Amino acid sequence: MKNILLPTDFSDNAYNAIRYAISLFKNEKCTFYLLNTYIPVIFDTAYLMSMPGMDAMEDVYKETSLKGLAKTKVKIEKEFPENKSKFYLISSFNSLQGGILDAVVEKNIDLVIMGTQGATGAAGVLFGSNTVHVLSNINCPLIAVPSGFTFTGIKEILFPTDFGLKFTDKHLFWPKHLAIQFKAKVNILHVYFYGYELDKEQIKQKEALNDLLDKTKKEFIRMENVDVVKAIEKYQKESPTDLLVLIHNKRSFFDNLFFKPVVKHIGFHLKTPLLVIPSKIK
Fold it and tell me: Could you list the residue range(s) of the whole structural domain that residue 263 is in?
């Protein structure tokens, strides 16, 4: 049984990601962990330790967190009465990133699914700062769900790669699992520049990728002399995509693609869920 972590700040965007997760796994029994983290707005350890009523303040935050989690669980049960998965609540006095990293270890989490922005998400920002911090540090696969996205199944998966990583079963588990589960096609996109063909190692990894994605429908696609970001956008405009998959390899284009805060600076608008797989996966 898969363990899925669902962080929430009780915003509409967070609940939409929860709805996506339940729909994604409606045909599988999973254990879902609803996680809410909280830290007092004024948080300075030395100051708070000397502050009278500190324990009472923490209790108030804890109670608010637990009530929010319970309310969310009730909402899920009403919306998905036939769901057979188990739901557990985690209220953590921690940052979002710290709470997620702790839960991944303590609950043996297989996948994290969260919204791209929280309650204070600003227009024009690709990812909220919390999501960016989690993406840069987590060693567990994560699906980031754009605000307002509605799950309608998965038919086409886009997987851009430079064939610069030694692929393993762990890297490909989720793309392969979802492709088989939904009978989807995996479109492997490689961008190259004229005069720069694949070297021997890249060819080797391309062949390994083909073998690892056995039992799936797949196609290798090449785009010539175009920026990687523009290649992804161009492909998605021409071919409907239900899931974008990226492996977070720091030597690749990943950091430049997603770690600049404002969309207009990189010309990239995330409209489909993004599955991020760390290169050093647990």
Answer: 156-278
Percent of the chain past pLDDT 70, that is, above it, reads: 77
Alpha-carbon dihedral angle through residues 210, 213, 217, 218, given to the nearest 10 degrees: -40
**What letter represents residue 125's amino acid?**
V
Q: Note the pLDDT tens digit of each residue in 148-194.
A: 899 999 999 999 888 888 899 999 999 999 999 999 999 999 887 65
Residue 193 token pair: 């520049």
The larger pLDDT score, comparing residue 75 to residue 1, is at 75
Residues 138 and 195 grouped into a single domain: no
What 3 state SS string does 122-164 have? CCCECCCHHHHHHHHHCCCCEEEECCCCCCCCCCEEEEECCCC
The pTM of this model reads 0.86
DSSP result, 218-261 = EEEEEEES--HHHHHHHHHHHS--SEEEEEE-TTSSHHHHHSSS
Q: How many domains does the chain have?
A: 2
By three-state DSSP, how is residue 76 classified? helix
